[in-house]
Write a structure and sequence with these properties.
138 residues; 2 domains; 5 helices; 63% helix; elongated
Length: 138
């Protein structure tokens, strides 16, 4: 796993965080076909119109539920969890580079490989974004 991949993944997480923080606060809930956003309509940045249109159409219960389940608070929690995995990886990389002992290096190298595999999996949802490389696929 190279530094370019790690930086690219950090940038994707930063982008997710920026987008979630720009959205209105939750908690978001569903009521029938509507997603209820607790903010005043003027603060919704056009989200209310798009959701309102969907609510006016038939068969949007699943869409409304999906939107409510992926509110900004959940996105921020997922970003922090993924950053935690990145921190574990970089901590292990440091242990490989500056080990306390040969046994420590060997253990850290094995764990680093396993967590690297997890990072590749975590990057898959971003595969359609600019900069993703097929060589990063698990």
């Amino acid at each position: 796993m190279n530094d370019e991949f790690l930086q690219w993944l950090r940038e994707q997480l930063d982008d997710d965080e920026r987008t979630a923080r720009a959205a209105t606060d939750g908690p978001w809930t569903t009521m029938g076909q509507r997603v209820l956003d607790p903010s005043p309509p003027s603060n919704r940045l056009g989200i209310g119109m798009a959701v309102g249109h969907a609510a006016a159409s038939a068969d949007y219960n699943e869409t409304a539920e999906h939107i409510a389940r992926h509110d900004p608070a959940r996105v921020l929690a997922e970003v922090e969890a993924k950053r935690g995995v990145l921190r574990q990886y970089t901590d292990l990389r440091e242990q490989v580079r500056n080990p306390v002992s040969a046994e420590n290096r060997s253990r850290a190298r094995a764990l680093q490989g396993e967590i690297g595999d997890v990072l590749r999996l975590l990057a898959l949802p971003y595969a359609d974004r600019p900069g993703y490389r097929d060589e990063w696929r698990p």
